[in-house]
Design brief:
5-stranded parallel beta sheet; alpha/beta
């Protein structure tokens, strides 16, 4: 399952991504915003998506705000979330291959739709390589999450 969310700054792009996901054959659940509201805040939607992704083993998430950075910062506050900023196809690919990211954060103010198609498609299709060094690094992150809060 893919969980998707955005604030007002990413609302238009999120609606486009929903159509893209449908066209590509992916099941998704929209966790809001459900309408354009200039007074909403990205942490609300970031936390909702990150909590679902962190508790469901095979789930992934896509978040959109104006820059993608705020949503990414908020999502990474949730233990088990590995949110990454997507800027280009290579960054999206490496975030999955090397770091097993489970949430892709996009900047609605900066990305063209063709770029978004490439980013989302690449990110979703790229598996985690599972190399020993990558697994070691993820274990260190998990250890820190358990012992730092």
């Amino acid at each position: 399952m893919i969980y998707i969310g955005s604030d007002h700054g990413g609302f238009e792009l999120k609606e486009y991504i929903k159509k893209l996901l449908s066209r590509l054959g992916y099941a998704f659940t929209d966790l809001g915003a459900y309408s354009f509201n200039p007074d909403d805040d990205f942490p609300d939607f970031s936390f909702a998506v990150a909590k679902r992704v962190a508790t469901e083993k095979r789930a992934k998430g896509i978040l959109v705000c104006r820059s993608g950075q705020g949503a990414c910062i908020a999502a990474n506050k949730v233990n088990g979330a590995r949110a990454t900023q997507g800027w280009d196809q290579e960054s999206a690919k490496r975030s999955r291959n090397d770091d097993n990211s489970n949430i892709l954060c996009l900047g609605g103010d900066f990305l063209k739709r063709k770029e978004v198609e490439s980013l989302v498609s690449t990110w979703l299709k790229t598996p985690f390589a599972g190399l020993t060094r990558y697994k070691r690094r993820l274990k260190k992150i998990e250890h820190y999450e358990k012992h730092s809060r």
